[in-house]
Amino acid sequence: MVYIDIQHREVTLKLVYYGPALSGKTTNLQQLHQLMVGHTGSELITLDTRDDRTLFFDLLPLQFETEGGFTIRLKLFTVPGQVIHNTTRKIVLQGADGVAFIADSRVSQTRGNNESFANLKQNLRDNGLDFEDIALVIQFNKRDLEGIRSEAEVDKIAKKGREPVFKAIAIQGQGVSETFRGLAALSWKRLEGKFHFAERFGVSHEHFMSQIDALFRPVKGGSR
Amino acid sequence: MTASASTTQTTTSAADRRPPLERLLRRDDFSRTLAPFVRGTFGSVDAVALFDHAGVVFCHVGDEQGPMAHWDQLPPEAHAVFRSSERGFGLGDHEFAVRACFAGADRVGTVVFAIPAASPDCPGLAAIADGLVGVIGALLQAGFATWVTSEMHLAASESNFRSLQQRNAELERAIAHLREVDQLKSNFLATVSHELRTPLTSIIGFSEMLARGIAGPLNEEQTEYAQTILERGEELLRLITQILEMSKMEMGTMRLNLVSVPLTEIVDRAFSAASIPAERARVSLRQDLAATLAPLLCDADKIQQVLVNLISNGIKFNRPEGYVLVEAERAPIRRPFDEDFFGEETSDALRISVTDTGIGIPEDQLQRIFDAFYQVDSSSTREHGGAGLGLSIVRKLIEAHGGEAWAESIVGVGTTFHFTLPIAESPSYSSDSSESDSSDGFEGSSDSSRGK
């Protein structure tokens, strides 16, 4: 649930990267962190475990100013993908404004994707969030591997739902910023419909997106 | 003695509870609040300083040439004030007013005000000091309330944490104990069933010899008795063998001999093993298997055992003139799943289904029937015998092959048991199964035949 602090003129959005184990959620956040050098208020908060798995969650906090003098904070979370960590997933999903579902493109991982997707729906329900209501984008990651679903197959899957679908090779940074832009745009659009940011605070959708795009531009004079 | 000890304890703990000034008041807040009173519109007080209860300076307000700017400690004159009826003292060309500060019931510090002795406001210092110490007192009280709340929170969290730690330790001990007991149970079952089989072999062997007339001719009644001993003995042997197998599986000492084998071959063997009880129960055995089915990659003996178990169940719980049907089709290795947004899974395995026309199993029991020793009808007067191990063994054997076993049923119509097994030519078998949990401790012995 978006957090609006009128007194300090701040809006905080929570965006969650969800998906099956080892699908590349943390990699997405790491790449974003690298792509936004100098713009991120702080380091990527991550708990590295011995076997590359996310133990609790990763957090990438982002922040920028808008034309109305508003501060927009974006908190990007990942969840642990392994089946046994469902309680953690449920907690991290609490109050999410947008979800990026990171799917593994390999055909052999279809079951994992389907199970995680069903788990996302269930956990949203358990958190009192409506699946139809939440901003959801889908990323087909690992497009560089063998045995993946073809472009045509991915497009066919994309047509089944109304969620925007992105293709990515997160480990090389491909498709990472596109997915994030898509997620930010859709989340803001959904919230705009509810809270009328343009009308109340003078923050238009175009301006919000131009500020998002600015996060990817190199900072002049080095990093802060 | 006891009374004095308890008094000492109370005093110590009260002293321990006294909050440090840092926790009650921020130096910034103190300076900002008192700065307007120093050399301002409220008279010529030129310095205010707050000392903690040990007498160390906490905060000083006033310029650097002020009379207290270099005081690190509360001066002895100020200490003397508390021992007398005075409320201030003179030092150099200044007069000082000394006041105690309280938070709750405890004295937490001392505040000292300085005014030039020559100032016309000097006689009013006591009144000014009383007024300002009231303001400082209010600040400290507010800080004290917050401090008490946070201490209480802390204490509550600590107590919760301790009780959780204790519970965790208890649970860990309980788990360790259960694991040990479980291991003991498995060992016990293995030993006992092994020991039971030895005398049973004699019972079966000698009763068979009697029944066949090897030890001399028997009359009709005697033959029937010997035959009954033989049949019951064999039934007991089957039960004991099941228990032994189960305990072997639980101990992880069973090996699989994986080979490429056609399903029809295994089904034929299973049917011939089950033909006598099927005839007796007037249940027909049917199979509907396409000739084009890919061969399985499995341990043929173990899968035959799985089929015999399922077919025997199908016969046991069937109606007369019913049937048991074995079918197979290509399917994913995992059981069907409701969500299919990300597409169908690859059909790289065989799904074998054994359907009967029996009494069926209620929905709420379907999951539990695969548990060891579980019986749908667990009453002592139940119609059908058995140790409740058959389906548990089925599931364990199938999971050891990397497949899944599950059941569907309609009460009064019949039950279908499904299980999946990898096919011999599947290229993805070895890669997929390497990610699946193999907690059973099974080992594939013929690795060369894997993932051809």
Tell me what you see in this structure:
The complex is a heterodimer of chains A (224) and B (452). With 224 residues, chain A is of the alpha/beta class. Chain A has one domain (3-214): P-loop containing nucleotide triphosphate hydrolases (Rossmann fold, 3-Layer(aba) Sandwich), CATH 3.40.50. Chain A is built from 7 helices and 7 strands; from the N terminus they run ββαββαβαβαβααα. In chain A, strands 1, 2, 3, 4, 5, 6 and 7 form a 7-stranded mixed β-sheet that branches. In chain A, β6 (135-141), α4 (151-160) and β7 (165-167) form a beta-alpha-beta unit. The two termini of chain A are 30 Å apart. Chain B is α+β, with helices and mostly antiparallel strands and 452 residues long. Chain B has 3 domains: 2-157, Dynein light chain 2a, cytoplasmic (Beta-Lactamase, 2-Layer Sandwich), CATH 3.30.450; 182-248, Helix Hairpins, CATH 1.10.287; 255-449, Histidine kinase-like ATPase, C-terminal domain (Heat Shock Protein 90), CATH 3.30.565. Chain B has helices spanning 2-17, 21-24, 27-34, 76-83, 125-211, 220-251, 263-280, 300-316, 390-400, 429-435, and strands at residues 47-52, 57-61, 88-91, 94-103, 106-116, 255-256, 259-261, 284-288, 296-298, 323-331, 349-356, 405-410, 414-422, 443-444. In chain B, the strands form 4 sheets. In chain B, strands 2-1-5-4-3 form a 5-stranded antiparallel β-sheet, sandwiched between helices. In chain B, strands 8-10-11-13-12 form a 5-stranded mixed β-sheet. In chain B, a hairpin with a 3-residue loop joins β12 (405-410) and β13 (414-422). Chain B starts with a helix and ends in an 8-residue tail after the last strand. The model of chain B is unreliable at 1-15 and 426-452 (pLDDT under 50). Classes of the chains: A alpha/beta (224), B alpha+beta (452).
